[in-house]
Amino acid sequence: MNISIIAIGDELLIGQVIDTNSGDIARRINPLGWKVNDVQVVADDADEIKRAIDRAFETSDIVITTGGLGPTKDDITKTTLCQYFGGEMVENPDVLENVKQVIADRGLVLNDLTARQAIVPSSCNVIQNIVGTAPIMWWERNGKVLVSMPGVPFETREMLDAAVLPMLIEKFPTNTAIEHRTLMVVGYSESLLAMKIADWEESLPPFLHLAYLPKPGLVRLRIDGQHQDKALLISEINHYHNHLVKMLGDNVLFDDDVPVEEILLLELKAHGLTLSTAESCTGGNIAHLLTSVPGSSAVFNGGVVAYSNDVKRNILGVSAQTLEECGAVSREVVEQMVIGACQAMKSDCAIATSGIAGPSGGSDKKPVGTVCIAVKTPGGIISMSHHFPGNRQRVIVRASMTALILAIEQIRALPKHQISSTVEE
Question: Could you tell me which residue ranges the MoaB/Mog domain spans (predicted)?
Answer without folding.
Answer: 4-171
